[in-house]
Design goal:
Elements (H helix, E strand, L loop, with lengths): L5 H7 L21 E11 L4 E10 L4 E9 L3 E8 L12 H21 L8 E9 L8 E11 L14 E5 L5 H9 L5 E5 L14 E5 L5 E2 L2 H5 L14 E3 L5 E3 L1
Parallel strand pairs: 3-9
Antiparallel strand pairs: 1-2, 1-8, 2-3, 4-6, 4-7, 5-6, 8-10, 11-12
């Protein structure tokens, strides 16, 4: 005799609580991915936790229900500009001089991490070429940078951090949400393909369904997702009036 599932037991029990949307299984595509329509995003804990909010199809209720997607596994990405010594111009170092400079930068940053930023257990780094064209007194064009990456679960570094081997640090104050949107090339509300998702142990939002992924690369989309029609939406708009408080701050009237 076939055993009853938990959903069937709840449906048959007269005094039991109704089945919630969160207890229903999610409808996946043939390749095991989930179609998720995103329209808003939020970050917490200095970017360690990123939330996408949207809708998924729930066959049991024949409707689209609200869904949140928690994205973990983000990494802070920094770029350290080498400090030139003896009035040498950038790009004029010999191969041996450049190798010594790069080794000195990695060694100094590792010593800074161990002595001043002990909450960062480790990092990854490599030298890359990037173009600069902004307001700092650095010649515009392509330069060598030390690219540094470490987990977003650890705090960001000071934006004014300098050293004996590097003169400035780019990306220290970059929002992890901004970095996620740029890396995954999310330009606005549309359908996404989610893989490797799980349901969290505890609810963190008011959405009907909640999901967690441990790798930002599990979020992708293709031409089919971009051409797919959006689900029905219910919108609410309201107007707020503010006033100046005694502490010279804005408050809702």
């Amino acid at each position: 005799m076939r055993q009853q599932s938990e959903l069937e037991k709840k449906a048959l029990a007269g005094k039991s609580q109704p089945v919630t949307n969160a207890e229903y299984p999610l409808k996946t595509n043939d390749d095991g991915s989930l179609s998720f329509y995103w329209f808003d995003a939020h970050e917490e804990n200095y970017g360690a936790d990123i939330y996408l909010f949207g809708k998924v199809w729930q066959p049991e209720v024949k409707a689209y229900v609200s869904c949140s997607l928690q994205v973990k596994g983000m990494e802070r990405t920094l770029f350290a500009l080498p400090k030139m010594k003896n009035n040498k111009a950038r790009g004029t170092l010999s191969e041996d001089e450049e190798k010594v400079q790069q080794q000195s930068m990695v060694l100094e940053f590792n010593n800074l991490r161990k002595n001043r930023f002990k909450s960062i257990p480790g990092f990854k780094c490599k030298f890359v070429s990037r173009k600069y064209c902004f307001e700092m007194p650095i010649s515009h064009g392509e330069h060598k940078f030390l690219k540094i990456k470490y987990s977003a679960e650890h705090p960001p570094l000071p934006t004014n951090l300098t050293g004996n081997t590097f003169e400035c640090l780019f990306g220290a104050n970059q929002s992890m949400l901004e970095l996620f949107l740029l890396k995954r090339k999310l330009k606005g509300p549309h359908w996404l393909k989610i893989t490797g998702f799980q349901k969290p142990q505890f609810k963190n939002t008011w959405c009907k369904q909640e999901l967690v992924i441990k790798d930002p690369k599990n979020v992708s989309y293709g031409i089919d997702e971009l051409n797919r029609a959006s689900p029905p939406m219910t919108c609410l708009s309201f107007s707020m009036k503010t006033t100046r408080s005694q502490n010279n701050t804005n408050e809702i009237a």
